[in-house]
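To: structure subgroup
Subject: Chain for Friday's discussion

All,

I'm putting the inputs and outputs inline so they're searchable in the archive.
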Amino acid sequence: MQWPREAERQRVAWWLVGLFLLLVVGRFALHFVGTFVFGLFIYYGARPICERIEDAVGHRGAAATLTLLAIVVPGLTLLGYVGLVAIRELTIALDPGLLAAVGERSSTPDAVRQLIRDPVGYLTRLDNFGAIRDQLTAGLRQLGVFTNGLVHLTLALSMSFFLLRDGDRVDEWFREEIGGDGSVPHAYVSAVDADLQTVYFGNVITVSLVTVLAVVVYNGYNAVVPSAVAIPFPTLLALLTGVATFVPLVVGKLVYVPVTGYLVWLASQDGAGLLWAPLSFLVVAFVFLDLLPQAVLRPIISGRSLHTGLVLFAYVLGAAYFGWYGLFLGPLLVVLAVQFLNVVVPELIHGEPLSPAPSAALGLGHDPEDADDVDAVGDESAGDEEAE
């Protein structure tokens, strides 16, 4: 038996080291896949904005920082609003007798001194100590969930920031070490990159516009109808309507249809002939929060590089299988699979040399030759005719 030469043995050893590192890093990444995919979504959703800001300020790092601030500030505002609503709901849900008991015990100087001297004994003597303990336990549990979510959000934002700032370095490394212009790897990655920008950035703009429209529609409805058939928490429901717009075809139906059913029930209970109010709301919501996004906004903003049905299944099945991050992972997997079918599979099946030219039969996704010229709002590519 002839042993491999020293150089070949070293190459095998390094390949084994690389495989070990790949397994370790892959296991780590799998644990945080939701964070990484969400960071990727933020990156593609913010990249066109970052490019516009970079053209204005002339500095990539500053542009990345300003871009994230433009995203983080509205996000924190949203979280603050939801938190205030949750606190208000929690206050309403608490037993008024519990709050009164605590207030009564703490309303005298003796009670304050006793609380400072022996807080455990003081709280133990309260009639509702068990309820206080349960509320504190629930509050600490919610605080842990909030802290965990904040950590993952920080990691996702950090990842997107470094991609926005140093993405050109990654592109340069890929071109030099793996495949430059005209190579199959470059064609595949370029097409995937263009499709992801089209899908993710288009959804960011569509969701933002629908959210604004929903805020106007919901609050406008409450301004013109009697209070007996008013929408509870209209702004919060409008935000949820915007989030529901991520899913094509489903869009705001997940929110405004149940809201309409609730308003119909309120109108039937009132008995004052107010059925016109929920029916009018349904018509207005369907036109502005469903028909307008589907028929006008999404085709204009997102482009038509991917089939609508594929995107629908990507969002629905991705969320059903993976959970919340499936909304971002599903489209990523579909884009990877579609471009693999586009660029690689035909030559593999026919035993021909690999070529960067896409499959003319499939007609889905961006043409790799045009991928570098994709506009910020999603230009139509060679597969546009088959989008619907």
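Points worth raising on Friday:
Residues 180-388 form one domain.
DSSP finds 14 helices and no strands in the chain.

D.
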